[in-house]
Amino acid sequence: MKSVSRLAILLAATALCAAAPAIVQAAPDKALEAKFDAMISPAEMDGWLKTLAAEPNHVGSAHGKANADLTLALFKSWGWDAKIETFWVLYPTPIEVAIELTAGPGAPFKATLTEAPIPGDETSSRIKDELPAYVAFQGDGDVTAPLVYVNYGMPADYDALERLGVSVQGKIVIARYGAGWRGLKPKLAQEHGAVGAIIYSDPRDDGYSTDDVYPKGASRPPQGFQRGSVADMTTFPGDPTTPGYGSTKDAKRLTRQESPTILKIPTLPLSYGDATVLLRSLDGPVAPPAWRGSLPITYHVGGGSEAKGGGGGQVHLKVVSDWSLKPAYDVIATLKGKVAPDEWIIRGNHRDGWVFGASDPLSGHVAMMGEAKALGALYKGGWKPKRTIVYTSWDAEEPMLLGSTEWAETHAEELKTKAVAYINSDSNARGFLGVGGSHSLQHFVNEVAADVTDPQTGVSVRDRLRANLAVQAAENPTNPRAVAQGRLAADPTKDLPIEALGSGSDYSSFLQNLGLATLNLGFGGEGSDGGVYHSAYDTYEHHTRFVDPGMAYSGALAKVTGRMVMRLADADTPVQRYGDFADTVSGYLDEVKRLAEAKRDEAAQRTRLLAAGAYRLADDPTVSRGDPAPLPASPKLDFGPMDRAVARLKASATAFDQTLSTKGATLSSAQKKRLDAALMPLEQKLLRDKGLPFRPWYKNMIYAPGRFTGYGAKTLPGVREAIEERRFDDAATYIGLTAEALTDYAAGLDAATAVINGG
Amino acid sequence: MKSVSRLAILLAATALCAAAPAIVQAAPDKALEAKFDAMISPAEMDGWLKTLAAEPNHVGSAHGKANADLTLALFKSWGWDAKIETFWVLYPTPIEVAIELTAGPGAPFKATLTEAPIPGDETSSRIKDELPAYVAFQGDGDVTAPLVYVNYGMPADYDALERLGVSVQGKIVIARYGAGWRGLKPKLAQEHGAVGAIIYSDPRDDGYSTDDVYPKGASRPPQGFQRGSVADMTTFPGDPTTPGYGSTKDAKRLTRQESPTILKIPTLPLSYGDATVLLRSLDGPVAPPAWRGSLPITYHVGGGSEAKGGGGGQVHLKVVSDWSLKPAYDVIATLKGKVAPDEWIIRGNHRDGWVFGASDPLSGHVAMMGEAKALGALYKGGWKPKRTIVYTSWDAEEPMLLGSTEWAETHAEELKTKAVAYINSDSNARGFLGVGGSHSLQHFVNEVAADVTDPQTGVSVRDRLRANLAVQAAENPTNPRAVAQGRLAADPTKDLPIEALGSGSDYSSFLQNLGLATLNLGFGGEGSDGGVYHSAYDTYEHHTRFVDPGMAYSGALAKVTGRMVMRLADADTPVQRYGDFADTVSGYLDEVKRLAEAKRDEAAQRTRLLAAGAYRLADDPTVSRGDPAPLPASPKLDFGPMDRAVARLKASATAFDQTLSTKGATLSSAQKKRLDAALMPLEQKLLRDKGLPFRPWYKNMIYAPGRFTGYGAKTLPGVREAIEERRFDDAATYIGLTAEALTDYAAGLDAATAVINGG
Hints:
The structure is a homodimer of 759-residue chains.
Chain A: H1 6-12, H2 30-39, H3 42-52, H4 62-77, E1 81-90, E2 93-103, E3 109-110, E4 135-136, E5 141-149, H5 155-163, E6 172-176, H6 184-191, E7 196-200, H7 203-206, E8 228-229, E9 267-270, H8 272-280, H9 304-308, E10 314-322, E11 325-335, E12 340-350, H10 358-380, E13 387-394, H11 402-410, H12 412-418, E14 419-425, E15 430-437, H13 442-449, H14 461-475, H15 480-489, H16 508-513, E16 517-526, H17 540-547, H18 552-570, H19 578-611, H20 614-618, H21 640-663, H22 669-679, E17 703-705, E18 713-715, H23 717-724, H24 728-756
Parallel strand pairs in A: 4-8, 5-6, 6-7, 7-9, 12-13, 12-14, 14-16
Antiparallel strand pairs in A: 1-11, 2-3, 2-10, 5-10, 11-13, 15-16, 17-18
Helix pairs in contact in A: 2-10, 3-10, 10-18, 14-15, 19-21, 19-23, 21-24, 22-24, 23-24
């Protein structure tokens, strides 16, 4: 589901970690890992990819069911205890879709809304089961209204529109993909009174401006469009009608109307071939510079017709969907642990695509299959992990993480007791390793990355990433973040940072609702699938030609992720280094303090400029741009509780890390067991029952998807977003709640330290 | 000639000025200025504009001669002692021009190279005397070669090309307009072995991406192209065959081949309508992200055909010119001063355009005419300025500042003795006042700007600019320069900074060769002429519809510039505040020190990354991008001489400003005369005979056009450019020379202070 440059992810990471004492652990079993590596076959993955991506495999499709059955059969054949768990999920599919320009320059015009086969891509011609343009969980409707261009459709865009004197009330908006998560675009449009929404892919963002278009190159061709979910992910993921509990066959459900995460206005995606006609029809103000893509037109905002009696574009938008329940088939496979069978290492990747899904998700799924086959063979050959390994092939991730969320909600109590960690992957590409997740695992990630060889350069994937961060810093000397990461990367004694996780793939429930230690991994940055993302051109042909020829990086992913699973399953003492988490949180606290200051300064500045009439004086009077709204004065927040909690956390983390380092090798079996028991619930201390404002499902006080970023993470979200949105009472409340969570976490660490000390 | 956003100029200014003691001066004659203002008539300017811009008026054209005669006659009728000084300048005009795509996708194709009339713009249909596409002082030729796209054609672009493995040796380059001065593009192409150059206007920079295209909006239509000079301005301006002396009728001349400023390769400008076909034909690597404009194509670099036996675009480029001498008619008009007739206040604007030249230069020229008419009327009415006023209507600015440079070179010795200041303007538009020049005049500029009312808002043009800087800062909180200027603008007790001058208009000789106090002024930032700059669509119709309807800002320019002239002509005591100059230079010194450090860091970093093989590891191996070239280790420079000179300058400037402030009102007439005599040669102390490296014509050690920016200024150029280009021996030499110049300047100030003190 999620497709962003892994490199970008890494460069976006906000925390830089300091050197910390090396932790003495039982060394990983390198001989076992060598055997594992020898069984990883990119050629085999290529074969699986071809089979799984042969036909459209969206939720409820015939090939989707076939893929579930095949995956189940393979896992069984590899020696796993495997089964399918079926959920019954609401999943609307399009019955009728239409976008027409009914008035204005270029009218009448009817958009295609289907993706014609591409010469030379045989898969793209298998359109029998392919669905036309749609986005999941929009609100059906049939509307005709003037069109307004809203750039990326994010909050700042609406502020700019207001200053331009253009309202979207009663209009249909057209937004371009990018900048914020897809689902926010129709949601914000709806909140601003729009009656419909269209989301198109501008060629500047993933079309001809980025590379030759498919089939000559990897980028989006004029007729390609991006499907996707627009359910209100930032409120909660999973089935919109079963909030917080599993969509089992007999589950009690909200009605579609009652569900808070199903949108109310009709919404469709659009290709840039068709969008050009719609955008060209607009009148009104010329769009601000940052709003302009690379279509060969002057971008206008629209909204001019009413004021001037002109005739800007008017659009007819219609969506009728089949709102029936569809089955989602999660394949759950287990290798039982011999020492601690009730300690689970869970690994997952989704299996469903929007159409053929070669890159997204199958490139990651076949890596997971490779791991599973190799682990099964090791198991058959006599290796028995200490802990239980659970492999999960999720269905229905694309519509809104349905397969994983419903499973996690159904098994929540058991998972909270038994799960040690959840490791996720999704689509994969050539390039650099990108990792996000719980920062207590940051050093563990670095150790694993140092032991896997990059297919293209022959150095470790960590060394390649380190080199890249150093070069990025050299080539972007005015980017403070790149420079900071480059400085870090230049010191080989330091770990590379992992990012904080937002949402957009199946880790969300595990991290943000259940509070488990979580990682999400993938390679990328080269040979991106961005140009065919969620289109009918994300095919075996495209993936193996442009994204990962020879599936070398699916192989590398399997080696990274498989190692993590084996090391976590067999670890003699904890792999975590809690000082990294403490340092990271300390960095986040510095950020939110600076943010609070910046928001105070901004409010004062705005007040001063408004009083001076500066906006009016600075404006071109021929372009209507009114004053920006005044900002309420910002109080000075008391960060004392956070300061004290972070200081306590640092002390407790340092004590634990040092104690484990000096005494870890001498622990008795009973101590180790007690230590596991003490640490397994530790990350859950970060949850607060109250959850985050407007969205109690999200309970993690450290990591959340942003309310206005979607996929993008917000750290210390209760505090940070309250400051960003100037909800200063909430900020104070969540300073308290977050401090509580961190203090509980520190107390948990102290208890674990006591176990090592013989407690 | 020069066309950039005035706002951008101001925001680009590097020096921020501090508050300084107010200087007590004889107050300007506000009653006189009110009379002057009352005679400024935008409607009259509109009429002059219509007449002057009625036909093509390039150098040597019939209408150009008629405009000279008309200007002369009007000045005389207004009471000025006026004459025409004729120079005989080399000015090549096109006889035959051709650009054809002869091989590759899209071939054969022949570019238009003419600008068809625009419906509704009657002027644009007067094409009888219009010249086709050409740039002045390219090297004629007839070549056929593969095409390579070089982005803006600046040095960093060639570094990037080299890493992509693409050479321009023996090729024709196509560069887009922007980023650096036009003439650098063919010059650098030539130095890299190219046999021809094409410069096109990408729609991202001034076409449909910026506004609706003409006639619907102000921006460049698909068939519009930008003419201009490509003589090597950064070596010296003026007639390429008379370096350093006047192009009088009998002047001894270099041959065309001997001239160092005439290029050797054929070069033509191109419209984006035609460029699309050429760029689409290219193969080879996809252009780096920053190189991509907004044509609806994937930008490729070219150069792929040889390596792969493919067939990228091949181009035939032909230019044949008439290299005969043409007459340039400078109109020189004088109002004699009654007290100090040998102290001259000089004011100039050029009169020649590339075609009709309505915005560039006539919008500024008619403002100057308005001033001249009003000053003439005041003179006739009895006002006799203390000092002599010289108004200059330059011809032949467009081909390379010919009219002003040849006049200044011819009269150099007299000017060095008599000129108090030179005040320049050029094209003018709606918006904000932008001023560049000698920083000793910064406070004077602020005082004048506070006394002229902005036509659109009714506040002073300074207050409007102040508001704009404050709003820019608020809206660009991550731009350090915007924030610094905003902080300054927020304090009404502080002056706004003026920018340093590079080149691109007629002030160059006065400031950089003769060392006179110089100012260059214009309004802009709204209703830009950028979209028709140097094209046949820069017409009366375009200017009065989009750039300055009603000529209100030509009126405002006349009020600003006329005030400056009157105040300088009548000033009882010096208007300069030298502390502003000292503070500004001190800021420049801080900048070059930081630059030296950054260059040292960069070299060390590059060495480290090369040794670690980091570039290779960070590279996508499917995209050839070799290691960057190693950088020689940078020595630590001794800035001691500059530190001492700046400290001395600050002390001398403070002493002068304070002494004048306390004793200025009590000076005797004899003292005032001696003070004038002491200060008139002061700015000339900034010159060193040796001039700058590679270009001895440029003698000012503080201000110069950049060798690799062209129009853009480099301050402390001998030092700064030596560091930028890693000529560290030159840096040491010019630290010494610049320190000498500043010390001489300080000594001159000390002598002036002694005069005030009764010396």
